[in-house]
Amino acid sequence: MTHPQRHALIVGASRGIGLGLVETFLERGWKVTATRRGAAPGLERLDVQGLRVETVDIDDDASVAALRERLARERFDLVFVVAGVLIESDKPLPAVPRAVHAQVYLTNAVSPILFADAFADRLAPGGTLAFMSSGLGSVGLNTEGGWENYRASKAALNTNARSFAARHAARDFGILLLHPGWVATDMGGAGADLDVATSAAGLADVIEASAGRTDLAFRDHRGETLPW
Question: What would the pLDDT profile of 140-149 be if each residue is shown by its tens digit?
């Protein structure tokens, strides 16, 4: 008996972990629709059967609606919103302009949920909706402070995802908030603990192990549950 090919929508796949996830799922035999906001040389150089590249800005409602229309015939076993920003996060909260705080909160905590609402009905039964969170988003683990606007935006994402789960209590898909670990990307820096391939493989393992579940969980790339 043959099984249908699984299909992932990776939102924010131009570089870093998003691009690593695209490569990982393609290697595992998935069909992948990957999005970028602008030019993405790393994504564009992939010449792999089963890959479709689309453009979307998750901060733009019209852009999200246009993507939804272009993908009207598609159903996904995974929708993973990876897109996020890191802006002046090394500064204490009072040193960051209000406009920057607003942008970080919008992109990291609000736009992923709005995207999820737009695509929730495109998830196949037993599929997974995933958001790229961070261990920094854990309120319980915040004992040292630092990375204040980014940390707060990921904590807000976690809270908004829990509210999303409550609004969609009758859903037939699972919801994951995922911490990729400290990864050597443009965002994570060269001194990080993990390379992209290791993090992406771990995240894919967690996602594949969660297929068929309909609960909500906050886990890291090793599958360990993190405190909210």
Answer: 999 999 999 9
CATH 2.30.30.30 fits 5-218, yes or no: no
Distance CA 21, CA 10 (A): 8
Q: What is the pLDDT of residues 175-221, one digit of tens each?
A: 999 999 988 776 666 677 888 999 999 999 999 999 999 999 999 99
Q: Could you write out the three-class secondary structure of the chain?
A: CCCCCCEEEEECCCCHHHHHHHHHHHHCCCEEEEEECCCCHHHHCCCCCCEEEEECCCCCHHHHHHHHHHCCCCCEEEEEECCCCCCCCCCCHHHCCHHHHHHHHHHHHHHHHHHHHHHHHHEEEEEEEEEECCHHHCCCCCCCCCCHHHHHHHHHHHHHHHHHHHHCCCCCCEEEEEECCCECCCCCCCCCCECHHHHHHHHHHHHHHCCCCCCEEEEECCCCECCC
**How far apart are the C-alpha atoms of 207 and 223, rounded to whole Å?**
9
pTM: 0.95
pLDDT in tens, 160-169: 999 999 999 9
* Distance separating the N- and C-terminal Cα atoms of the chain: 41
Q: How many whole angstroms separate alpha carbon 12 and alpha carbon 55?
A: 9
Instruction: Indicate the residue type of 89.
Output: S
